[in-house]
TrEMBL record:
Family: Belongs to the G-protein coupled receptor 1 family.
Domain G-protein coupled receptors family 1 profile, residue spans: 41-290
Keyword Metal-binding: no
Organism field: Equus asinus
Protein name as annotated: Olfactory receptor
Gene Ontology CC, one term: plasma membrane
Entry keyword Coiled coil: no
Subcellular location, principal: membrane
A GO molecular function held by the record: olfactory receptor activity
Alphabetical UniProt keywords: Cell membrane, G-protein coupled receptor, Membrane, Olfaction, Receptor, Sensory transduction, Transducer, Transmembrane, Transmembrane helix
Pfam families linked: 7tm_4
Membrane topology, from the record: Multi-pass membrane protein
Transmembrane residue ranges: 26-48, 60-81, 101-120, 140-163, 204-226, 238-261, 273-292
């Protein structure tokens, strides 16, 4: 009987990003370039780092993981959003909704963990340079990156498993263009106390704890930079982490807003905008931020892009740690 209740709703109805027919074409023309830009930018980052031996360092290894996460995260949501704009909204099966929910939470959680890990990498590089090769060796980096994907997958499996135990017996209209935990809980006709508790635990770990660790890393970094006597030395030290700090700020600004977002009323429309920020805008901006503010990445990209020439400039390995 429980299984019958759970499968009473076999599909959900997703809202389009806009209910105004006159704006759907405009949003389609805006979101499609965003999606293509996110794919192209992050793929170029992955290819450039892979083909450029000078970028085979821990920082760029983690940046490659971030680019892969951005590709799969935006691909989890944007194709369905574009389809709904063309078809004036649409439906998604129960299994498709749970699958989208699983992968979206997995990739977003992994990105928060990875950003914290990248902050730790910059902390070791700047604050403990003599120990950098030992603390951030390739086996250690591979273990840390694998832990990011595994921990997030485990947490997501628990949350998704709890979601599949709920009964959905109508209504089946999701007030969003994607399947998210808060909107699905509003449709459940089962008690959601356990789900709410586990969501709070996950939010505290992935959001609060990781944010505090990232903040602590940058607190130590800034204190170390301020102790550098020369202005040129301070600029060089800050240039190695300024791009990452900008990405962290962009990511956590959306996380904080989502955490305090009420689950009803006009704020649901605002929630669509926030969801678009972390599923489309951030994946598009991240490769731009890292490439525009990093000479090594720009040199590698010039070697990848035929239209940019062969890139005769010799790259400066400004992230190489001196052990002398």
């Amino acid at each position: 009987m429980a299984a019958d209740n759970r499968t009473a709703v076999e599909e959900f109805v997703l809202q389009s990003f806009s209910q105004d027919p006159g704006l759907r074409g405009l949003f389609l023309a805006l979101f499609l370039p965003l999606y293509l830009g996110a794919l192209a930018g992050n793929m170029l980052i992955v290819v450039a780092i892979s083909l450029h031996p000078g970028l085979h360092t821990p920082m760029y290894f983690f940046l490659t993981n971030l680019a892969v996460l951005d590709i799969v995260c935006t691909s989890t949501v944007l194709p369905r959003l574009l389809e709904n704009l063309v078809e004036k909204g649409g439906t998604i099966s129960y299994g498709g909704c749970m699958t989208q929910l699983f992968f979206l939470m997995w990739f977003l959680g992994a990105e928060l963990l990875l950003l914290m890990l990248m902050a730790y990498d910059r902390y070791v590089d700047i604050c403990r340079p003599l120990h950098y090769r030992r603390l951030m060796s390739w086996p250690v980096c591979a273990l840390l990156a694998g832990g990011v994907w595994t921990v997030s997958a485990f947490s997501t499996s628990v949350l998704t498993g709890l979601m599949t135990r709920l009964s959905f017996c109508g209504p089946n209209q999701i007030r969003h263009f994607l399947c998210e935990v808060p909107t699905l809980l509003l449709l459940s006709c089962s008690p959601t106390t356990l789900n709410d508790i586990m969501i709070v635990i996950a939010d505290v770990y992935f959001g609060v704890v990781n944010f505090l660790l990232t903040l602590a890393s940058y607190g130590c970094i800034i204190a170390s930079i301020l102790r550098v006597r020369s202005a040129a030395g301070r600029r060089r030290a800050f240039s190695t982490c300024s791009s990452h700090l900008l990405v962290v700020t962009l990511c956590y600004s959306t996380v904080v807003y989502t955490s305090i977002l009420p689950g009803s009323g006009s704020s649901m429309e605002n929630g669509k905008v926030v969801a678009l920020l972390y599923t489309a805008v951030s994946p598009t901006l991240n490769p731009l931020i890292y490439s525009l503010r990093n000479k090594d990445v720009k040199v590698a990209l010039r070697r990848v892009l035929p239209a940019s020439g062969k890139g005769r400039e010799r790259p400066r390995w400004n992230l190489q740690v001196s052990t002398s």
